[in-house]
TrEMBL record:
Residues annotated as domain HTH cro/C1-type: 5-38
UniProt GO molecular function: DNA binding
Alphabetized SUPFAM superfamilies for the sequence: lambda repressor-like DNA-binding domains
Lineage: Bacteria, Pseudomonadati, Bacteroidota, Flavobacteriia, Flavobacteriales
PROSITE patterns the record matches: HTH_CROC1
InterPro entries: Cro/C1-type_HTH, Lambda_DNA-bd_dom_sf
Protein name per the record: HTH cro/C1-type domain-containing protein
CDD domains named among the record's database cross-references: HTH_XRE (cd00093)
UniProt superkingdom: Bacteria
Length: 176
């Protein structure tokens, strides 16, 4: 009887060990397994109880292992997100600084063109085409890197900072 043998093998016992555990002769176990005899009710009940207890324990162990694995995977995901967020923040901080520098440069160029138009003698003034080029360059730079663009970058930076704080909170919660 295949099913009878499975109980004993699931417990990891030999016929002799099962016989000692159930306090019955070894031949009785052998006959039970081939289907020629039944085990005493007390022995059969003990065998089935041990089998079910072992199955429950294995299920709990498997569940705990799965939970641990999932928790570790989630922590690894959070750490990766945190690193990506820090990298994106650094890139955005650099962009914001560059935008501020370019805006200041364009502002200075605009002031220079105004100064050249007002305070220079006609003979010392650059050509009108060059002056127009400088004005256009200053205007385009101020539009491209102006306060709205800087505010947009600053808001993105704040959102990255908030996201980082949330990631750190979540990571702290799962690490402890």
């Amino acid at each position: 009887m295949k099913e009878a043998r499975q109980f004993r093998e699931a417990l990891g016992l030999t016929q002799e060990e099962a016989a000692q555990l159930l306090k019955i002769p070894k031949s009785r176990i052998g006959m039970f397994e081939i289907g020629q005899r039944e085990l005493p009710v007390k022995a059969k009940l003990r065998l089935v109880t041990l089998y079910h207890d072992l199955q429950k324990q294995e299920a709990l162990l498997q569940s705990a292992t799965n939970e641990t694995f999932e928790k570790e995977a989630y922590v690894a995901f959070l750490e990766l997100e945190l690193l990506e967020n820090q990298f994106n923040r650094q890139v955005l901080e650099r962009k914001l600084e560059q935008s501020k520098e370019k805006y200041q440069k364009s502002l200075k160029l605009s002031r220079l063109t105004t100064l050249l138009e007002q305070d220079t003698k006609e003979t010392e003034k650059p050509s009108p085409a060059f002056m127009e080029f400088l004005k256009r360059k200053a205007r385009n730079g101020m539009q491209k890197h102006g306060l709205p663009e800087q505010a947009k970058l600053a808001l993105k930076l704040k959102s990255y900072h908030s996201f980082q704080q949330e990631l750190e909170k979540e990571l702290k919660q799962y690490r402890s």
